[in-house]
Amino acid sequence: MPVLQPIVNIAELLYQKGITDVVVSPGSRSAPLTLAVARHPHLRVRVMADERSACFVALGMAQQSRRPVAVICTSGSAVYNLAPAVVEAFFGQTPLLLLTADRPHEWLHQQDGQTINQVGLFGAHVKRSYDLPPDYSHPDARWFIERSLNEAITLSQLYPAGPVHINVPLREPFYPTADESFSYGPVRVIDVCTAQPTLAPDTWHGLLRQWEQSDRIIIAVGQLPRDPALLAILRKLSDEIGVPVVGEIVGNISRNDVFITRTDTFLAGIDEQTAQSLQPDLLLTIGNSFLTRNLKTFLRQYPARRHWHIQPSIDRINDSFQSLTTLIPAEPLAFLEKLFADLDYQRFLQGDDDDDSDSHAFLNRWQTLDRQATRLIEKTLMPSAEQTNQLTDWSAVQLIMEQLPEKSVLHLANSMPVRYANLCGVSERQQISVSANRGVSGIDGCLSTALGAALMTDQLVTLLIGDVAFFYDRNALWSAPVPPNLRIILLNNDSGHIFRIIDGPSRQPELETYFETPHGYTARNTAEDAKLLYTVCDSLDTLGSLLPDFFQPGNTARLLELTTDKQANQEQFLAYKAHIRAFYDNKI
């Protein structure tokens, strides 16, 4: 198979550049790529028949491993099916390498099957696109292929990480004859040295002066993977310096006695006087997107005089709160550790390293409201006598979050599950790693993404997902085997429940038909087809008794379907909103 040797060598170059996992969707035009990775002794290859699901599985694998995962598919409309996961990877800053087989370009518009214009197909939603030559006879062509692969794999990992597209036109023959064998390499690996940006002393001292001139400072943490070292330095800045650390479940900010995590509740009905008392002089942000509308609205309506955003390098200006004054190219952990060390040393020199109640007054204001919001949520979840055993989506999520196994992984599907989970939170003691597709926040690949995460870890991976997202993406379970460490908890209220919660659609007579779209499905047959252990539950007491066994390790993935009533879910959420109004009306 000498004419396709450069294609065979792609598999070796993937391995040499640190890629160990490939997700393949079957096809004929892509056969040379597929055979190259399938026969490579050091690559792990997963086969997924549905290209849309396949790319989301790769996304979940990359989220969990924080390394690029390669995706291979055949030509034509198959390539377009990668697009939803590609845009999530782009805005979620997750590294993917997309290897799409193609027809030679001279066959475009010649009524040849599976032939579309694939060059640059993903547009602005990939970091870069490459189009390889279909003929390899000239040495420059082989040099170009190697150079492009080296560059693409490196680029996928450089900040901000993201997807890179390599289009691969292929001529027949695609398949080796019986007497042909594969040999890999040699390939040329081009390493790229990385360096951390360093702030000039004058710049650093200028930032310290701005800090000292600011009486009210907030650190807000957007979506980030769990990092114990980062959590530790954030706690020090709050405990010892008196800075409120505001975060959400998607930023892996766990509930403890220090961090502020209930902003979606206590900022919902905030009055002018309270809002002004919480307005920062300096806002320091790290991480990606924020989940809660109320926090984003507050920081836009009551902007900080100075707003620093810390990110590893300057790519785009992220000014989501419309108040950015300084973009700082630095690793957030390194920046915060140096910041704390310098502030702590200054306090020592000034002799005020003991706790100062005045310096903590702003922190105490935020923490007091956070604790009051916790009590308000507990009041909402406290059932009346006739509702003692009633299972609602929210009460189910609260019980689930409390019983999640320590040091496990939680994947949150979009729409209401991620919002309920944020309202409930996880305890710092549990050391849960939380992930979610919050780049573009779609429901279309949540099950596939969680399955991909489970493929990359021995830890238990729990997916909390709604019924519409689950049934939309059940092709994730098509390609067996499903990893045995996956636990799927399905909240089935027979509707797109979020539209009953949002004020606009909830008031429309077309709510059920055009927004909620009731379906009447259960997951029983899907679980049977995928050979999952299946349990259904409709009461809170039963759920409490099922969860300990459900979370036990085993040889088979499990699916727990919780059937709830959408009217009861809506009533509970409306009661929550009423409690918020009463809180501010009565100042309790």
From TrEMBL:
<comment type="subunit">
    <text>Homodimer.</text>
</comment>
<dbReference type="InterPro" id="IPR004433">
    <property type="entry name" value="MenaQ_synth_MenD"/>
</dbReference>
<dbReference type="InterPro" id="IPR029061">
    <property type="entry name" value="THDP-binding"/>
</dbReference>
<keyword id="KW-0479">Metal-binding</keyword>
<comment type="pathway">
    <text>Quinol/quinone metabolism; menaquinone biosynthesis.</text>
</comment>
<keyword id="KW-0460">Magnesium</keyword>
<dbReference type="Pfam" id="PF16582">
    <property type="entry name" value="TPP_enzyme_M_2"/>
</dbReference>
<dbReference type="InterPro" id="IPR032264">
    <property type="entry name" value="MenD_middle"/>
</dbReference>
<keyword id="KW-0464">Manganese</keyword>
<feature type="domain" description="Thiamine pyrophosphate enzyme N-terminal TPP-binding">
    <location>
        <begin position="10"/>
        <end position="119"/>
    </location>
</feature>
<protein>
    <recommendedName>
        <fullName>2-succinyl-5-enolpyruvyl-6-hydroxy-3-cyclohexene-1-carboxylate synthase</fullName>
        <ecNumber>2.2.1.9</ecNumber>
    </recommendedName>
</protein>
<feature type="domain" description="Menaquinone biosynthesis protein MenD middle">
    <location>
        <begin position="208"/>
        <end position="344"/>
    </location>
</feature>
<keyword id="KW-0808">Transferase</keyword>
<comment type="pathway">
    <text>Quinol/quinone metabolism; 1,4-dihydroxy-2-naphthoate biosynthesis; 1,4-dihydroxy-2-naphthoate from chorismate: step 2/7.</text>
</comment>
<keyword id="KW-0474">Menaquinone biosynthesis</keyword>
<dbReference type="Pfam" id="PF02776">
    <property type="entry name" value="TPP_enzyme_N"/>
</dbReference>
<comment type="function">
    <text>Catalyzes the thiamine diphosphate-dependent decarboxylation of 2-oxoglutarate and the subsequent addition of the resulting succinic semialdehyde-thiamine pyrophosphate anion to isochorismate to yield 2-succinyl-5-enolpyruvyl-6-hydroxy-3-cyclohexene-1-carboxylate (SEPHCHC).</text>
</comment>
<dbReference type="InterPro" id="IPR012001">
    <property type="entry name" value="Thiamin_PyroP_enz_TPP-bd_dom"/>
</dbReference>
<dbReference type="InterPro" id="IPR029035">
    <property type="entry name" value="DHS-like_NAD/FAD-binding_dom"/>
</dbReference>
<keyword id="KW-0786">Thiamine pyrophosphate</keyword>
<dbReference type="GO" id="GO:0070204">
    <property type="term" value="F:2-succinyl-5-enolpyruvyl-6-hydroxy-3-cyclohexene-1-carboxylic-acid synthase activity"/>
</dbReference>
<comment type="similarity">
    <text>Belongs to the TPP enzyme family. MenD subfamily.</text>
</comment>
